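Two proteins, back to back. First:
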Amino acid sequence: QVQLVESGGGLVQAGGPLRLSCAASGRAFNSYAMAWFRQAPGKERDFVVAISWSGGTTFYADSVKGRFTISRDNARNLAYLQMNSLKPEDTAVYYCAARNGVISTLQREYGYWGQGTQVTVSS
């Protein structure tokens, strides 16, 4: 069982940076693949990025490639999403998710979710 809590969301101007954190509690965090998804108002929740349990493999959605960076610190049970060059279209609730297995872009394959943190990018 893994519990996830996101933090770091807020209001930022377009072009600015923001870093999200996902704190995990429970067992064997370092055996779980982690991912970030986001849901904009009136839209479905979309995949953003995922990282393998070791941190050695990552996969990014095209919309954030080159601007966002995912990382993890298994010793501290933390995952991060560094977001740079933010755009108004990045405005969404960002969710941290975990699964016991290889990385995936599919929501249904993640069994553990945080409550989400709001990111608002002003133009």
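And the second protein:
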Amino acid sequence: QVQLVESGGGLVQAGGSLRLSCAASGRSFSNYFMAWLRQAPGMEREFVQGISGSGDRTYYADSVKGRFTISRDNAKNTVYLEMNSLKPEDAAVYYCAAGPDLGRIPRQYTYWGQGTQVTVSS
């Protein structure tokens, strides 16, 4: 069992930056592929970025390429999402998720956080 708690969301102007954190409790954090997914109102939840258990492989959605960076600190059981050059279309609830391997589909993830709201003003 893994519990995930996100933090760091908030209101930011377009072009600004935010750093999201996801603290995990439970065993074997480094065994899990971790990802950030987001869901805007009226839209389906979508994959944003993911990182392998050891941190040596990362994956991203084209929409955030060059702007967002995922990282993890297995000693702290924490995964991060650094978001730069934010756009109004990045506004969504951002979820941290854990699963056995890379998945670009939400149902491929086993554990979920409660989400943190990111609002981007234009």
